[in-house]
Amino acid sequence: MGIKGLTKLLSDHAPGCMREQKFESYLDRKVAIDASMHIYQFMMVIGRQGDQTLTNDAGEVTSHLQGMFMRTCRMLEAGIKPVYVFDGKPPTMKGGELAKRKDKRDEAEAALAKAKEAGDQEEIEKMSKRTVRVTRQQSQEVMQLARLMGLPVFEAPCEAEASCAALCKAGLVYAAASEDMDTLCFACPKLARNLMSPASQGKPILEFDYEKILTELDMTWEQFIDVCILCGCDYCDSIKGVGPVKAVSLIKKHGNIETLLQHLDTEKYPVPEDWPYKEARELFKHPDVVNTDGLELKWTAPDEEGIVAFLVGEKQFGEERVRNTLKKLKAAKGKSSQNRLESFFGAVTVKSSTTGKRKE
DNA sequence: TCTCTCGCCACAGACGAG
DNA sequence: CCTCGTCC
DNA sequence: ACGTGTGGCGAGAG
Question: What residues does the 5'-3' exonuclease domain cover (predicted)?
């Protein structure tokens, strides 16, 4: 997923749309998150040895729950209020892209089988990462966990990113937190990247401001979408020889893809046959999303016993570990509201930002 | 020579004990 | 600080 | 039962 080279394009042509933010500034902020993407990544990485993952005795994979439980706790601990949005059905337009990926997967599966024969551990690990799948049941388990933790949860009718953008447009969340630049094509007012990286890499949060993108590029929404389609998106092929640089200059010159096509040297730059750029544009402009009319988002306290029953009872997590994690969460809750009060009354005491030692 | 695109590769969590 | 083993 | 994003590097075309 994504628009090829869009990050670099924006930092070249619209640097003002990007702003670094402190992690602390997200205290008490609501953000929409594409949960499916996170699940997918956890499945690839957590508890891996060869092609093994974390499982309970019944052989059910638990890597996704381990990852999501920890990450959700970290967010709540930091005072962030996440909404999880899950992917629905993929748009039919992804067909072409899909076929390609299936081929790649089949290749990886063959390579995996071969590596197993040969007992090549390194190759097994590499290939098994490329054949990861997230089942419907696994997604639903994460939904169940998220609800137990008191978060609002949505199943998007189609792509999760589009619904995240819709929640943001409706003012229900401050930003969509995603690594996927597609989100901006849906006119999402604010996109936050690296939201969870302070722990992993120490990168600051990077915000993209949609209005500033249009202002600095001096383009309309439609023109920006056309640039993204030319750069290369999931919905259709792009023109060979045209990348981010030419995409911007061509749209600046001609205004839209239709006009551009009339002037393009199709000898040098062959346009794909049956190129459905109009349909792609339509998907960005009018995606199928959750209905936000009269919608209210509510966060409630985690249901500790419910979580224990699920994770410990069914999935064989260590009870002490689970309860400990939830305890830390409770403690942090008091602290974060205290911070909020302090800043409300003007007592700006942001001190221990680096090493959070517990108080004596 | 420089610019741009493309293809191939690598990589990806979070915790806590020591 | 870090590396490394473990999480299920 | 659909499935990534990113950066780096070198090749090749213009």
Answer: 29-298
